[in-house]
From TrEMBL:
Keywords: Cell inner membrane, Cell membrane, Membrane, NAD, NADP, Translocase, Transmembrane, Transmembrane helix. The keyword NADP applies. It comes from the Bacteria. Its EC number is 7.1.1.1. Gene3D superfamilies: TPP-binding domain (3.40.50.1220). Belongs to the PNT beta subunit family. It is a multi-pass membrane protein. The transhydrogenation between NADH and NADP is coupled to respiration and ATP hydrolysis and functions as a proton pump across the membrane. The lineage of its organism: Bacteria, Pseudomonadati, Pseudomonadota, Alphaproteobacteria, Sphingomonadales. This is NAD(P) transhydrogenase subunit beta. Residues 19-488 form the NADP transhydrogenase beta-like domain. It is found in: Cell inner membrane.
C-alpha cells in the first residue's frame, strides 16, 4: 500500500486497459485477504498480494507522464532493499512492532501525498474553474470543495495513523512503558480535538484563497498528529493486538481517501479492502475479549486509575517442579493441550516445543494447541510461530473450538502465556481483564506453567491464581531451555 501511496495520480479520462489492470489488481488483493485467513493458504495469499501490488505499481508507472523515471527507480530500489534487509533480520518476537512501524509509514505517506496535492494541485488535476465553486472570480482556478474534503480526510487519517503507530511501536518494543498513561480529562480533550479536526476540515473545504486555506490545513495536520498520540497512550498492553489491527484499518482508510483525491482506482480499492478488513478484525478481537471497540479506544485494559499490577502483595505458596517431573507426567498422559503465549515467542521455543510434541505423539499422547485471539502482541502471532516450526495446522484450535476440552485433558501445558489463562477475567469484577474470555485451564487434571520467575505478571499487569492452584506445577525457567530439558528427559 505504501507503494501505491507513493505512485502517481490518475488524471482525466481513464484508459479502459488501465481500469482492467487495476481491477485485476483489486481481485488479486481480495484473493490475498482470502488466502491470509487460513495458515494453510497464507503463502498463496501473500503471493497474490505481491502480484497485485506489482500490477498496480507497473500500471501506474507505464500509463502516467513520469517526470524522472530514474529517480522513481532509485527510490523503489532503496525501499525494496531496505524491506528485504529488515525482513531477513527481524526476529519473530519483533514482528508486532515492525508492523506498527510500517503502518506509520503508510500514514506518513498519506500526509505527504495530501500536502503535495495541496501545494501543487495542477499536477494532480484538482483545479476547477472558480465559477463552479464560488463567487470570487479574482482567481481563475481553484481546488474544488469535494477534493479539499477528500484531501483533509486523507491527511487527518494519515496523521492519526502515523502518530498512533509510533506510540504503538514504542510500547511494543519496550522503548515506552506498556502501562496506560492517563491524562486528566483525557476524554474531553480527545473529543474536543476530534471536533476541532472536523470543523477545520469543513472550513478548509469552504475557504477559497491560499491565505485562508493554508493556516486551516496546517492546524488540521497538527491536531491530527496530536490526536494520534492522545488516542494510543492511554491504552494498556493487553489491548495492543486490537490497537495494531485498528491502526491497520486506519492506514487503509487513509489510502482510500488519497485514492479519491488522486482519482486512482487501485488506491481506492486497496484502501477500502485494508480499511474494512482491519475494522472487521478489530471488531472480532474486541468481541473475543468481551470488550467494546469504543472502550478500547477510550482506555483499554489497565486504564482504570485503581488498577494494580501483580507482584506487590504478600507471596503466596506455590508448587515448583523440574523438567524430569514434567516429562514423567506428560508421557503418562492421554491428552495434552498446549497454550502458547508471548513468552514462547521471546524465548524462540516453538521449535523445541514441536520436538516435544512429536515425541509425545510417538508415545501415543494426543497433543493439541490452543490459540487465544489476543495471544502475543498482534493478531495471529502464535499461529505464525507454530507454522514456522512446522506444527500441523489441524492440531491448532481457536478458543471457542477447544475450551470445552480442558475438562477431559490430563495436562494443560502453558508456555509463556498469562492473561489468556487468568481466571480473574471470569471472577474478579475489579480486575482490568474482567470479561475477557479465557482458557479454562483450571479444569485440567494437571497444569504445567512455564515462566521465568514468580515476580513477573502478564502484559495486563495482574497476578494469576492459576500459579497457586493445587494441580499447578510451576516450571520456572527460560521457556526454550525448559522445553529442551523436557525433551531430553523424554528420550
Amino acid at each position: 500500500m505504501f507503494s501505491l501511496l507513493a505512485a502517481g495520480a490518475e488524471v482525466g479520462t481513464v484508459n479502459p486497459w488501465v481500469a482492467v489492470a487495476y481491477l485485476v489488481a483489486g481481485v488479486l488483493f481480495i484473493l490475498a485477504l482470502r488466502g491470509l485467513s487460513s495458515p494453510a493458504t497464507s503463502r498463496a495469499g501473500n503471493r497474490f498480494g505481491m502480484l497485485g501490488m506489482l500490477i498496480a505499481v507497473v500500471t501506474t508507472l507505464v500509463t502516467h507522464d513520469i517526470a524522472n523515471i530514474v529517480e522513481i527507480g532509485v527510490a523503489i530500489f532503496i525501499g525494496g532493499a531496505f524491506g528485504l534487509v529488515v525482513a531477513r533480520r527481524i526476529a519473530m518476537t519483533q514482528m508486532p512492532e515492525l508492523v506498527a512501524a510500517f503502518h506509520s509509514l503508510v500514514g506518513l505517506a498519506a500526509v505527504l501525498v495530501g500536502w503535495a496535492a495541496y501545494l501543487n494541485p495542477g499536477a494532480f488535476g484538482l483545479l476547477v474553474p472558480m465559477d463552479t465553486i464560488g463567487t470570487d472570480y479574482s482567481l481563475p482556478m481553484q481546488i474544488s470543495a469535494v477534493s479539499k474534503i477528500e484531501m483533509g480526510l486523507g491527511i487527518a487519517i494519515g496523521a492519526i495513523t502515523f502518530s498512533g503507530s509510533v506510540i504503538a511501536f514504542a510500547k511494543l518494543s519496550g522503548k515506552m512503558s506498556g502501562a496506560p498513561i492517563l491524562l486528566p480529562m483525557r476524554h474531553v480533550i480527545n473529543l474536543g480535538t476530534l471536533v476541532a479536526i472536523i470543523v477545520l476540515t469543513a472550513l478548509f473545504a469552504m475557504a477559497t484563497g491560499p491565505e485562508e486555506t493554508f493556516p486551516l490545513i496546517v492546524g488540521l495536520t497538527v491536531l491530527a498528529f496530536a490526536i494520534g498520540f492522545l488516542l494510543i497512550i492511554p491504552i494498556g498492553g493487553a489491548d495492543m493486538p486490537v490497537v495494531v489491527s485498528m491502526l491497520n484499518s486506519y492506514s487503509g482508510w487513509a489510502a482510500a481517501a488519497m485514492g479519491f483525491t488522486l482519482g486512482n482506482t487501485a488506491m481506492i480499492i486497496t484502501g477500502a479492502l485494508v480499511g474494512s478488513s482491519g475494522a472487521i478484525l478489530s471488531y472480532i478481537m474486541c468481541r473475543a475479549m468481551n470488550r467494546s471497540f469504543i472502550s478500547v479506544i477510550a482506555g483499554g485494559f489497565g486504564a482504570e486509575d485503581g488498577a494494580q499490577g501483580g507482584g506487590g502483595g504478600e507471596q503466596r505458596p506455590y508448587k515448583s517442579g523440574s523438567a524430569e517431573d514434567a516429562a514423567f507426567m506428560l508421557e503418562q498422559a492421554e491428552k495434552v493441550i498446549v497454550i502458547p503465549g508471548y513468552g514462547m515467542a521471546v524465548a524462540q521455543a516453538q521449535h523445541a516445543l514441536r520436538e516435544m510434541t512429536d515425541i509425545l505423539e510417538e508415545k501415543g499422547v494426543d497433543v493439541k494447541f490452543a490459540i487465544h485471539p489476543v495471544a502475543g502482541r498482534m493478531p495471529g502471532h502464535m499461529n505464525v510461530l507454530l507454522a514456522e516450526a512446522n506444527v500441523s495446522y489441524d492440531k491448532v484450535f481457536e478458543l471457542e473450538d477447544i475450551n470445552s476440552e480442558f475438562a477431559q485433558a490430563d495436562v494443560a501445558f502453558i508456555i509463556g502465556a498469562n492473561d489468556v489463562v487468568n481466571p480473574a477475567a471470569k471472577t474478579d469484577k475489579s480486575s482490568p481483564i474482567y470479561g475477557m474470555p479465557v482458557f479454562d485451564v483450571d479444569k485440567a487434571k494437571q497444569v504445567f506453567f512455564i515462566k521465568r520467575s514468580m515476580g513477573g505478571v502478564g502484559y495486563a499487569g495482574v497476578d494469576n491464581d492459576v500459579f497457586y492452584m493445587d494441580q499447578t506445577m510451576m516450571l520456572l525457567s527460560d521457556a526454550k531451555k525448559m522445553v529442551e530439558e523436557i525433551v531430553k528427559s523424554l528420550d
